[in-house]
């Protein structure tokens, strides 16, 4: 089993590994980076570091995981887009960055279909309407929460990570469906939001299911009133979906992908794809997803491209219907 302490090392920890392919002229591991546009503490950081460790364990290359936060995840994408197509710099991107946020930005500075070459989909997660200790344990459903808010208007703020994200969109859909004056409260990352939930500065937030550590959920400090997917989660069978509680438009799932720069030659990507396939087939990879409560979609690079196309079109319709307002 993978040691948890190794997953939670600092955001620029070097994950060592072998070179790809016989006679590879790639630089040493210290020169290779995996960029991610969210701050440390996010679910994607644990996933990315853990997956890179598994990749190195099956003989793949070593990459340093770099959290490059800024400009609603755009800074990481722009940095990656400007990098040489040599395989030394890869991008881990959430579907929010690839498919949703381009519909929120007034000016698009990257094109996920043209600038990024898919390597793999490395995980899929649901979001949760999560309440903390400020909300009484007697509040167990969405209807209960809406009634409680009517008596506690100071707690109408609902938190989420990143303006224009799936969490933001979920909050807007929720407010429209319930007729409640919910106030969307953006955070730069999930860690500060979870801390505010635990400190009773915030009553509820849209979080990744299980985010913050399983002990917070098993102890009851964090509780889910419903998940954003169309179907209940296999690991939370007793938690209803928000759709079955009356929010019919709620069907949001987010996923993570790994990408090479768009013009990277196949002489570099082909051996990397072989090692990624070995990583995804390993027991350690399955254990990582089990620990983080993530699904493991096995998609080819072509299927990832098609998913980006379909998800982008669907998000364009949702943004047109619910918002949020576009930003620079």
Give the tally of β-strands.
9
The biggest beta sheet is recorded as: 9 strands, mixed
The portion of residues assigned to helices is 25-40%
The secondary-structure element order is HEHEHEHHEHEHEHEHEEHHH
Derived from helix and strand composition plus strand pairing, the structural class reads: alpha/beta
List unreliable stretches of 5+ residues: 1-27
Shape: globular
Computed CA radius of gyration, to the nearest angstrom: 20 Å
CATH superfamily of the largest domain, by name, is: Bordetella uptake gene, domain 1
How many domains? 2
Q: What is the CATH top level name of the largest domain?
A: Alpha Beta
Mean pLDDT: 91
User: CATH topology of the largest domain, anyone?
Assistant: D-Maltodextrin-Binding Protein, domain 2
* Contiguous helical run count: 12
- The CATH architecture of the largest domain would be 3-Layer(aba) Sandwich
Quick overview:
The chain has 12 helices and 9 strands.
Give a description of the structure.
- The chain is of the alpha/beta class.
- The protein has 2 domains: 191 residues, 3-Layer(aba) Sandwich (D-Maltodextrin-Binding Protein, domain 2); 120 residues, D-Maltodextrin-Binding Protein, domain 2.
- It is 37% helix and 18% strand.
- It has 12 helices and 9 strands.
- Strands 1, 2, 3, 4, 5, 6, 7, 8 and 9 form a 9-stranded mixed sheet that branches.
- Helix 2 links the parallel strand 1 and strand 2.
- 44% of the residues are buried.
């Amino acid at each position: 089993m993978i040691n948890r302490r190794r997953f939670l090392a600092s955001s620029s920890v070097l994950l060592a590994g072998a070179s790809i392919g016989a006679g590879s002229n790639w630089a040493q591991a210290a020169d290779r980076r995996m960029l991610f546009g969210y701050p440390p503490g996010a679910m994607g950081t644990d996933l990315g570091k853990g997956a890179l460790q598994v990749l190195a364990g099956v003989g793949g290359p070593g990459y340093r995981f770099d959290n490059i936060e800024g400009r609603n995840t755009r800074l990481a994408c722009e940095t990656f887009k400007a990098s040489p197509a040599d395989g030394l710099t890869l991008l881990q991107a959430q579907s929010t960055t690839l498919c949703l946020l381009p519909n929120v930005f007034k000016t698009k500075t990257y094109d996920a279909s043209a600038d990024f070459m898919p390597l793999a989909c490395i995980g899929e997660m649901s979001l949760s309407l999560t309440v903390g200790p400020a909300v009484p344990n007697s509040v167990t459903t969405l209807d209960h929460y809406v009634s409680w808010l009517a008596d506690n208007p100071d707690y109408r703020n609902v938190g989420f990570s990143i303006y224009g994200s799936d969490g933001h969109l979920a909050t807007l859909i929720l407010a429209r469906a319930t007729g409640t004056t919910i106030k969307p409260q953006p955070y730069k990352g999930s860690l500060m939001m979870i801390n505010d939930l635990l400190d009773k500065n915030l009553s509820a937030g849209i979080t990744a299911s299980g985010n913050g550590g399983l002990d917070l959920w098993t102890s009851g400090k964090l509780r889910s009133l419903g998940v954003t997917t169309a179907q209940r989660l296999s690991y939370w069978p007793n938690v209803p979906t928000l759709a079955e509680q009356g929010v019919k438009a709620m069907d949001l799932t987010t996923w993570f992908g790994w990408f090479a720069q768009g013009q990277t030659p196949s002489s570099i990507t082909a051996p990397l794809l072989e090692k990624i396939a070995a990583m995804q087939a390993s027991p350690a990879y399955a254990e990582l997803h089990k620990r983080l409560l993530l699904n493991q979609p096995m998609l080819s690079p072509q299927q990832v491209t098609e998913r980006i196309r379909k998800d982008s079109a669907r998000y364009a319709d949702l943004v047109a219907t619910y918002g949020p307002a576009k930003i620079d």
